[in-house]
Amino acid sequence: MRLARAFALLVVGMLLLSACRIDATVSVRVRDDGSGTVVVRVALDPEAVRAAEAGGSSLEAHVRLDDLPAEGWTVQPWSARADGSAVLVLRHPFASPAQLRAVMVGLNGVTGPLRAVRLDRGSEVARSTFDFRALADLAGVESGVATDQQLASNLSAQRVEVAGLDAVLTAQLRDALRMNVAVALPGARTRVWHLAPGTRTVLETSSSQLDVGRLAWLGLGVLVGIAAIVLLVFGERRARHHRRGVRRDRIRDEIPT
User: Helices 162-176 and 3-17 meet at what angle, rounded to 10?
Assistant: First the structure.
């Protein structure tokens, strides 16, 4: 099960039960080598939790996340809060900027709120640069019900009119979803965006930091170069001194005694 489909199921369960509020936070932390971690935190308000648990049901019953560990996600199950809300936390590591893009595609599918994620890592002499860009589209987010063939087929089998349901859920989702995005790049403070329902924002942040390891190798190379020049000059001076001594000895030998 893709994570995007899992959240589509969650949307169906939550939004049909109540006019709930969904708060999602996506955090991306990047390390010096371009690897890092994505953390997704989803919070449901007390009304949504009460509706989901009506009749002895549970949040876990509305969406199964059992398949996510096989896709690299670490799942921290729903945690109840004192105010009656509940929080789900998911984590996924990435080894490179390219893998981050793949993780985010798996998270959002083609209709999710955070798309076109791009992370570029560059280098300049003794500095490393990072550039992050993404589109946060809460105005165009869709429930994903109609585009998920398996889910749509299951609903049709239960005589549910998929197109109409998808339209209703999409409208409710755009009104209910609030999202925060936090990006921490090496050498820079964490950049945070607070996105209100129905908004569309291009997220951009960058950083540049001194590459200590590369600087050390550069310094070592300079020292080796200087040492080589010194040895070359010293060797040439000794050679000239030796040649002069040889010439003096020859002249001395040629003078009649």
Answer: 90
User: What ranges make up the beta strands (E) of the chain?
Assistant: 22-30, 36-44, 74-80, 86-94, 114-124, 127-137, 177-184, 191-195, 200-210
Better-scored residue on pLDDT, 130 or 250: 130
Strand partners, 44: 22, 86
- All residues at 6 or more sequence positions from 171 whose CB lies less than 8 Å from its CB, including other chains: none
Q: Against a cut of 0.85, is the pTM above it?
A: no
Contact criterion met (CB below 8 Å) for 6 and 65: yes
The three-state DSSP-derived secondary structure of 10-72 is HHHHHHHHCCCCEEEEEEEEECCCCCEEEEEEEEECHHHHHHHCHHHCCHHHHCCCCCHHHHC
